């Protein structure tokens, strides 16, 4: 069981978080290995005209996965080393337990950015400094899911990676060359982004001596009969599912005091004749839409006995297809494409629906990153209520790696102290500067004494006398500000020096934040650093066996 309070990003370089601790993960995998031999199987619960356990066995056989099955994954993007740490941990666990590692590439999400951020050393006001350079990715459309992005000519990607290597300090020592080799494996004239991403990750895994993960696209997973059964089970009991989902969302927000009504995921809409499902639907070249279902017999639970009403599916407000209840209720009939799929519509799970399907239908152990581990608590709640069984276990693995970039050592505390000193200099120059004119200092002391007297008088003055007192306090403030200005003017060079020092620290602090950023693309790190991370995770896992 994941302890929510332990889900904290490691701060130090090469810091690793494994939750639950490795010894608990071992116990979970031993338990998973024994599950198929149990009577009864805890997942042997009814689903459509079969059981969840039977559909799970069918999917794992279809994908030719040897148990135990460890599943992890991420969006189809250039992710950071904390994400790659999940693959290292899965490798370390399968070294002891055998089995299969599946990496789910979420090609149904839209890209977060059309650029790759690269650290670059350049000359600046204070010498060489780290800058963040953003390099445009070829033909990236932020409106479209990754699977809908067009294949891009090889030459465009060559120019892209050449520019990345030119900007990246010491690129030859990084894992970028191995990554790029994998990117082009089997490529002809055009490159599909997700295919190249999976190939490149395998190339890095080979370079580090890791077992190759089985790269599985969410788009491919969503084409399986078992995924159709998952969708059908939810559509046939849409109102019941939405009630479970929304109750879990409310409970999560209450337990963790989350004020944002859209966190960890927005509630599903329940209308008079339609219910929102936790899926996206879209056609090639079009943006995603929310999937809705409408059927009078099913909005409040299971279909009435003996009926075979049609269920209508909507992409937003547009009708995109209809299915007979009888067909959706028969798992054997779901091997063929649904009517809306035959019409060109793609049905893809949203984040928590994907986690739900992956854990109930695929994984013996699912390894999350930090965000997924926190939000998956909501999935466990609605999954338990809807399916009548707990999902197989999950864990969380992440890590923090820093690139070997120059830093100035300016932390937040040093910057705050410098800001306070400069503010104090402006309002209390006599504390920070020696040799100020005595006449001005005496005038300042007199004005401060007058300010205190006026303050004390204001407490005891009747309301009618406040106007004249306020005028006196305004005059005192203006005179005191003018005296401070004259004192700072007299300090001259010392004030300018402090201001310049403050600017220098601000600039260096910003440069250090760029240099110490933990979310640089993992292939930017030196091979030696990734080997250290691999060895550290392997030791943590093996030492607990």
Structural features, described:
- This protein has 545 residues and is an alpha/beta fold.
- Among the domains are: 115-212 and 522-542, no CATH class; 412-514, no CATH class.
- The protein contains 19 helices and 17 strands.
- A hairpin with a 2-residue loop joins strand 2 (46-47) and strand 3.
- Mean pLDDT is 92; it is low at 296-303.
Radius of gyration: 31 Å
Give the N-to-C terminal Cα separation.
18 Å
**Class from secondary-structure proportions:** alpha/beta
Residue share in helix: 40-55%
Secondary-structure map:
Blueprint: E1 15-19, H1 22-34, E2 46-47, E3 50-51, H2 52-62, E4 69-75, H3 81-97, E5 100-106, E6 115-124, E7 127-136, E8 152-153, H4 154-167, H5 176-184, E9 190-191, H6 193-207, E10 214-217, H7 218-221, H8 225-236, H9 238-256, E11 275-282, E12 289-294, E13 310-315, E14 318-324, H10 325-329, H11 339-342, E15 346-349, H12 351-361, E16 365-368, H13 370-387, E17 394-400, H14 412-427, H15 429-432, H16 438-460, H17 466-491, H18 493-515, H19 527-542
Helix pairs in contact: 3-19, 5-6, 9-13, 12-13, 14-18, 16-17
What attributes does this structure have?
17% strand, alpha/beta, 545 residues, globular
Short description:
Helices cover 48% and strands 17% of the residues. With 545 residues, it is of the alpha/beta class. Among the domains are: 115-212 and 522-542, no CATH class; 412-514, no CATH class.
């Amino acid at each position: 069981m994941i302890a929510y309070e332990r889900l904290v990003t490691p701060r130090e370089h090469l810091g690793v978080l494994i939750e639950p601790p490795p010894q608990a993960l071992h116990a979970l995998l031993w338990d998973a290995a024994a599950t198929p031999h149990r009577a009864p199987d805890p997942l042997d619960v009814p689903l459509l005209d079969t059981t969840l356990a039977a559909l799970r066995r069918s999917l794992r056989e279809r994908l030719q996965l040897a148990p135990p099955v460890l599943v992890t994954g991420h969006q189809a993007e250039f992710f950071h080393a904390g994400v790659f740490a999940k693959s290292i941990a899965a490798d370390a666990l399968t070294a002891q337990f055998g089995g299969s590692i599946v990496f789910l590439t979420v090609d149904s999400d839209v890209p977060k950015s059309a650029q790759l951020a690269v650290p670059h050393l350049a000359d600046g006001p204070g010498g060489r400094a780290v800058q963040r350079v953003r390099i445009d990715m070829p033909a990236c459309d932020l409106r479209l899911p990754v699977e809908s992005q067009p294949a891009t000519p090889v030459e465009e990607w060559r120019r892209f990676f050449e520019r990345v290597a030119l900007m990246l300090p010491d690129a030859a020592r990084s894992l970028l060359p191995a990554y790029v080799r994998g990117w082009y494996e089997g490529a002809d004239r055009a490159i599909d982004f997700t295919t190249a991403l999976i190939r490149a990750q395998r190339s890095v895994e080979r370079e580090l001596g890791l077992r190759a993960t089985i790269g599985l696209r969410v788009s491919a997973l969503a084409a399986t009969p078992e995924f159709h059964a998952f969708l059908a089970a939810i559509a046939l009991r849409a109102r019941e599912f939405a009630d479970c989902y929304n109750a879990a969302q409310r409970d999560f927000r209450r337990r963790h005091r989350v004020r944002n009504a859209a966190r960890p995921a927005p509630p599903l809409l329940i209308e008079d004749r339609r219910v929102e499902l936790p899926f996206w639907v879209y056609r090639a070249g079009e943006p995603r839409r929310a999937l809705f279902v409408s059927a009078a017999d099913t909005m409040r639970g299971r279909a009435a006995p003996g009926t075979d009403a049609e269920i209508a599916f909507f992409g937003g407000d547009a009708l995109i297809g209809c299915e007979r209840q009888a067909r959706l209720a028969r798992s054997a009939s779901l091997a063929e494409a649904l009517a809306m799929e035959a019409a060109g519509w793609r049905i893809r799970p949203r984040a928590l629906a994907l986690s739900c399907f992956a854990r109930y239908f695929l994984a013996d152990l699912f390894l999350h990153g930090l965000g997924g581990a926190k939000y998956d608590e909501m999935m466990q709640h609605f999954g338990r209520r809807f399916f009548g069984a707990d999902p197989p276990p999950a864990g969380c693995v992440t890590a923090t790696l820093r690139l070997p970039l120059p830093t100035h050592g300016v932390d937040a505390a040093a910057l705050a102290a410098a800001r306070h000193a400069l503010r104090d200099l402006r309002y209390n120059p006599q504390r920070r500067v020696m040799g100020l004119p005595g006449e001005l200092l005496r005038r300042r002391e007199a004005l401060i004494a007058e300010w205190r007297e006026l303050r004390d008088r204001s407490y005891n003055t009747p309301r009618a006398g406040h106007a004249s007192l306020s005028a006196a306090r305004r005059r005192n403030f203006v005179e005191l500000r003018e005296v401070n200005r004259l004192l700072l003017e007299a300090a001259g060079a010392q004030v300018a020096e402090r201001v310049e020092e403050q600017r220098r620290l601000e600039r260096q602090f910003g440069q250090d934040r760029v240099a110490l950023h933990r979310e640089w693309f993992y292939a930017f790190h030196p091979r030696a650093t990734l080997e250290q991370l691999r060895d550290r995770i392997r030791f943590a896992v093996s030492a607990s066996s």
